[in-house]
Write a structure and sequence with these properties.
This protein is of the alpha/beta class. It has 3 domains: 245 residues, P-loop containing nucleotide triphosphate hydrolases (Rossmann fold); 172 residues, no CATH class; 125 residues, no CATH class. The chain is built from 20 helices and 20 strands. The chain has a 6-stranded mixed β-sheet with strand order 6-7-8-3-9-10, with helices on both faces. Strands 12-13-18-15-17-16 form a 6-stranded mixed β-barrel. The protein has a 4-stranded antiparallel β-sheet with strand order 2-1-4-5. Strand 16 and strand 17 form a beta hairpin. It is rod-shaped, with a radius of gyration of 44 Å. The two termini are 38 Å apart. The structure holds adenosine-5'-diphosphate and magnesium ion (MG). Adenosine-5'-diphosphate (ADP) binds next to helix 1.
Length: 642
């Protein structure tokens, strides 16, 4: 039985039925194991087309091709890849080595796809290179060695998986006579060693090295010198047995290393791809961190009193003209409210206007009564000195804190601490200065214990109102109702009104949540744009690397191998982009934190997790499409691109 047998094989490029578009006309040819066949003919006569069909790089448009008795039309693309990988070796006119792999890596490639362990692969590749006199160049890249040496490397690659048939398309075409002769004698030796060799050439001198010459003209065989008696060749297992897939060793690791090589050898492209992901990830992580920090900062600035509090004031509303006369909010209410379980604390409010005098300066100011630590609990802070103490309150001490603006006005540059000011006609010792966290127009202001304001300035025993701090877990509206009921019972009439800032805070925080969701959405869109960028570059890279894909397929990579390679590449690049993006986001957060005393964003587990996950899926999704595209290319179309 013939090893290779074509039966009335035609090949037509494209759908055009025109005579000129037909490259092969019903070719029948059978080649036995152990033959050395030269296919000769003029340029354009169909030699390469014939060889590509014999080598399973291309498929016939009509007729049948049997390889060791197996009808190739019935083989799946994966089977054909396995056949190319295990049984066929290719040598091309232009060598077709992968430029970013070293000589030894190029040689070892077919075995990599076949799952041979790395050590064994290296040893065998090195042995083959040695046998072909290029061992000293095994770490060189194809661009660093001569054409003759490149062709020897290509021969070694063809032998890597012990190919039974070597196909050579114009193997000497790009070489000078000496190197051409050398390659030719290698082919002769291989044939003597039992390999079947099919060589295409347009040069009759080269062809004369073969044992059989087949001449092609316009897609037809016009002459065949015929089979000569072959020496006995050793028996091989049938092809159908040879195409069982082997179990892979460290499959993913090998492919990961392979894709690292490819990423490193296309640095600019890899950087640009990673940049898209980098921007997207950084945008997502920063926006999550900043919006969280903004919410925290709002909550902090607003203060406990605002976020979880409500205010009881006397009168029907702010404009009630009778309010001044109402005296019903007293220490009794304070105690009654304090005992409610959902109330954390109750602070009375009492204030008045007075003239403040210090030496020759005087100014009209608002005097605010405060409870213990009253400044700390407000939206202001103590700049110098100390806050109101519990002793100050219980003793109605003659002490006051002064707002920094008012301080400037009265004291200029002299230290106010320990100085005595006259508030109306009551002397108060300045124990501290107060700076508002929120800037804005402010009245002149001075703060004193509420007992001092009540007893010493106003001579009253009631309050203007109360600020009630609530347990944050308690429903603010229900709290408001309970407080209202309690006060109504004790006052008998509704001579007070309640402003529920806790309730408005709750709805405000909801708005903040919506706002940060919107910010997150925008960031997600930027990640999507980054992802599309990744896809673009991967697509371009598929086009740019078509040749490489063709070579890989010719040496036996399956579609799945190619998909995996591209996928691992894009996921690796995306991961690098993500890590860099997260690092950048962390730096930006630290910078914002350093520059602003309001915002302190930091990368949370949430932002790292979300952006990491999104990015990983981006890599997979956007790497998938180009990878599919790459894997679907036929080896011969891929190889013929320049
Ligand atoms: P040779 O190798 O003998 O020079 P080829 O097999 O490359 O010839 O080409 C045979 C014929 O098929 C030529 O007319 C060529 O133009 C045509 N041909 C080869 N490859 C393609 C292709 N991919 N698409 C269309 N026509 C092609
Ligand atoms: Mg050709």
């Amino acid at each position: 039985m013939a090893l290779l047998e074509l039966r009335k094989v035609t090949k037509q490029y494209g759908a055009d039925e025109h005579e000129d578009a037909i490259a092969l006309h019903e070719i029948s040819l059978s080649i036995d194991e152990g033959e050395f066949v030269a296919i000769i003919g003029a340029s354009g006569s169909g030699k390469s087309t014939l060889l590509n069909i014999l080598g399973c790089l291309d498929s016939p448009s009509g007729g049948q091709y049997f390889l060791d008795g197996v009808d190739t039309a019935l083989a799946t693309p994966n089977h054909l890849a396995l056949i190319r990988r295990r049984l066929l070796g290719f040598i091309f006119q232009r060598y077709h080595l992968i430029p970013e792999l070293t000589a030894i890596e190029n040689v070892a490639l077919p075995a990599l796809y076949d799952g041979m362990p790395a050590r064994e692969r290296k040893a065998k590749a090195s042995r083959l290179l040695q046998g072909l006199d290029v061992a000293h160049k095994h770490l060189s890249f194809p661009s660093q060695i001569s054409g003759g040496q490149q062709q020897r490397v290509a021969v070694a690659r063809a032998l890597m998986n012990d190919a039974r048939v070597i196909f050579a398309d114009e193997p000497t075409g790009a070489l000078d006579t000496t190197n051409g002769q050398a390659v030719l004698s290698i082919l002769t030796d291989l044939n003597r060693a039992g390999h079947t060799v099919v060589m295409v050439t347009h040069n009759p001198d080269i062809a004369s090295a073969a044992t059989r010459i087949v001449e092609v003209q316009d897609g037809r065989i016009v002459r065949d010198s015929g089979k000569v008696n072959q020496p006995e060749v050793k028996a091989h297992a049938p092809i159908s047995q040879a195409v069982q897939p082997r179990v892979f060793q460290n499959y993913l690791l090998q492919f990961f290393l392979l894709s690292l090589r490819s990423i490193l050898s296309h640095r600019l492209r890899s950087y640009l791809t990673a940049l898209g992901v980098f921007i997207g990830t950084a945008a997502v992580a920063i926006s999550i961190a900043v919006s969280q920090a903004a919410q925290d900062s709002i909550a902090q600035n607003a203060g406990e009193l605002f976020t979880n509090s409500l205010r009881v004031s006397k009168g029907k509303d702010w404009n009630d003209p009778q309010a001044a006369a109402i005296q019903s909010i007293t220490a009794r209410d304070l105690q009654a409210l304090s005992s409610l379980p959902f109330i954390r604390s109750v602070t009375p409010t009492v204030d008045t206007e007075r003239r403040i005098r210090y030496r020759q300066h005087d100014v009209q100011a608002r005097v605010e009564g405060l409870d213990v630590q009253g400044i700390a609990r407000s939206d202001s802070k103590v700049e110098l000195g100390r806050d109101i103490s519990s002793h100050d309150v219980s003793a109605a001490a003659n002490v006051a804190l002064i707002e920094v603006g008012t301080q400037d006005f009265l004291f200029g540059h002299t230290d106010p601490l320990g100085q005595v000011v006259l508030v109306g006609d009551v002397p108060l010792v300045i124990i501290g200065t107060v700076k508002s966290k929120t800037t804005g127009l402010q009245n002149n202001r001075i703060y004193a214990p509420y007992t001092t304001v009540q007893n010493k300035l106003l001579g009253i025993s009631h309050f203007d109102g109360m600020t009630v701090s609530l347990d944050p877990k308690f429903d603010p509206l229900l709290a408001e109702k309970n407080i209202q009921d309690l006060l109504l019972r004790s006052h008998g009439i509704k001579d007070f009104f309640i402003i529920n800032t806790a309730a408005s805070w709750a709805s405000f925080s909801q708005i903040a949540v919506i706002a940060s969701a919107a910010l997150g959405g925008i960031a997600a869109i930027s990640l999507l744009v980054g992802g599309i960028g990744v896809m673009n570059i991967m697509l371009v890279s598929v086009v740019e690397r078509t040749k490489e894909i063709g070579i890989r397929k010719a040496v036996g990579a399956t579609a799945a191998d190619i998909v995996l390679q591209f996928l691992i590449e894009s996921v690796t690049i995306c991961l690098m982009g993500t890590l860099a993006g997260l690092l950048f986001a962390a730096i930006v957060c630290a910078m914002i934190s350093g520059l602003s005393d309001q915002l302190h964003p930091s990368l949370s587990l949430l932002s790292v997790g979300v952006s990491g996950l999104i990015c990983f899926s981006t890599g997979v999704i956007f790497g998938w499409l180009p990878a599919r595209l790459a894997s679907g290319l036929s080896p011969v179309t891929a190889l013929s691109t320049e």
